[in-house]
Amino acid sequence: MKHLFGPVNSRRLGLSQGIDLLPPKTCNFNCIYCEINKAPQLSCERGEHVPTAVIIAEIDGLLKDEARVRDLDVFTITASGEPTLHTGIGTIIRHIKKKTDKPVAILTNGSQLYLKEVRQDLQAADIVIPSLDGARPESFRKVNRPAKCSADLETIIKGIADFSREFAGEIWLEILLVDNINDTPEDIAALQNAISRIRPNRVQLNTVARPPFESFARPLTGKRMEEVKREIEKGYDGPVDILAGSKDNEPCESGKGREGSLESITPNKVEDEIIEMLLRRPCTATDIAATMNLDAERASEILKSMERGGSLTVKIHGGKKYYRVPAGQKTGDE
Ligand code: SF4
After folding, report:
1. 36 lines ligand 1 (CB under 6 A)
2. Secondary structure (3-state) at 236
3. Which pLDDT score, from 0 to 100, does residue 272 have?
């Protein structure tokens, strides 16, 4: 599996070069809404799950392509799992900052920020986006299903709040809401309380926009997302964004398009690139065509052939057809 992906045209970050630090899905949570279609390798141990030197070599390879790097708005460190479980994350952030003038963003479930070494590792980043989906223990357990080894909820909230105080960059707190699970009035009140402790630069509300790991994880309607936003705004004077669900037919993020046409690339290579993309999240044919720079008809032919061959499955979610890799598909890192 390659550890660089994209660039992806992210609505919140701009043209974002993804960096994936872990084998999928190495995580200390097993969220019901997770977009990665496989059971987690539950772990709370920090380690060099993929050699740091391998990831840095891939980054250095990309940096040689000056034209491509010039277009980027941001490097985004994420993982098909929890990126702060990788002990090389600080080295990787500092390497990017030393070699480029681009900002670095980190997407994290926030659960490891109670560890001083993790907070130190993330200091060199520009934007940290921790999640906090539930501020009541029962909702937290239902939505995130933390591993037994994971810290308890109060420790996690305190860790995010401590990091927020220490960090000179931007903190955007992401809250993913699941219908009837973490969106009750008690949940929203508890989240308001946590937000007032954390004092993020912005709050970002999300919902189950793509096919979730568990089919019972349902999205909130756009109307309900707007109601929650108004509730949060009563106790928080920073910006509150809605990332998904503001319109019931919110489009997916889609790629800017890889450089150059795929016509000169072998069909197997195209299929490999599609699988790489789908290992991280389910995508529609439109997402895939845009990201891979394919015309819609060609993308549809390739996807149908891959579906017939069993390397893809289809899931209808929110009235749209998504492609994803079948559960249990192995990657090069496993
Ligand atoms: S959504 Fe993120 S934190 Fe939750 S299980 Fe998936 S990879 Fe882990």
Report:
1. yes
2. coil
3. 85
